[in-house]
Amino acid sequence: MTANFFKTSQPATFFLAPLIVVVTRLAFFGDVDFDHDHWYSTPLYQKVFNWVLFAPWFEWLLATVMVIVQGFLFNAIINARGLLERVNSLPLIAYMIMASFFAEQLYVSPALIANFFLLFSMKKVLELPQQVNTRGKAFDAAFYVGIGSLFYAPALCAFVMVIAGLAYFKSFVWRDYFITLIGAVTPWLFYYAFIYITDANWETPFQINDSVIHEISLFEGATVVLAVELSLILVFILPSFFKSVRLNIVRVRKSYLLLFWWMILVLLSWYIFNVQTHQQLNLMVAPLAIMIANYFYYARIVWMRELLFYLLIALALFNTWFVN
């Protein structure tokens, strides 16, 4: 099993990638003592998903299935947009590994739910270059961001990605931006309309659930380990990534840069808005995965490519089995 194997779209890759994810996540199967980190869990999330906590094994299973489905969705989006020239399974394995990279990703969480909607939003944004009338796509992209933010409020920062996509791919038309804003606001209008009509006693989606806060420190063990590991990965992949950006066609180049700045935005939001949870890093899984897939696809030094592939799997296993 090597990175080169996933450069194809063989059916075997569709079985092997989920298998790697399951093995990586097995450490938390049925773990009843794990401290759930549901910072920024919104009232909507609590009403819809708190029922999964009835059994740890079921929550683990549901989270694992969600990550696998998201991986296939991400793989389909990247291949459909032709960001890696040929159809392959590198985005699939890269996404699944990075979505199972640390403990907070191994159970159902607000950020995991929001990621579904952010992937659909990303799909719409990446389709903008091929649309003559962009308003429908822009509205849909912002609408998905709005829905995601109802489950995990910090996901609202993805609205910047939608606006940046309009600026990157299309000439300025103020109506497009206005429609995009309407798209982001619409889910919130439905949310408050439901509360008003049903007289439900729900708080604002930005209400923090104080009973489940797991405050983190920038210098606690798990955070330092994650920072070192992510820095190591970026040192590997960024030179190759920017080289491929320069050499690619304009549409692909803009798509890559958009996803790169999306990753930077997530990292900044973690500090600027003092989001006290590793969950926020879930929002950068997609851009980080495409950078890793890009490296695996274009890397000319075979041994370095294979080293990073096995290093990613080893780090994921280390984080989930030994770092809590």
UniProtKB/TrEMBL annotation:
Q: Which organism is it from?
A: Salibacter halophilus
Which chain positions lie within coiled-coil regions?
none
Keyword tags:
Membrane, Transmembrane, Transmembrane helix
Pfam families in UniProt: DUF6427 (PF19992)
Sequence intervals crossing the membrane: 12-30, 60-80, 92-121, 141-169, 176-198, 218-242, 254-273, 279-298, 307-323
* Official protein name in the record: Beta-carotene 15,15'-monooxygenase
Q: Which InterPro entries match?
A: DUF6427
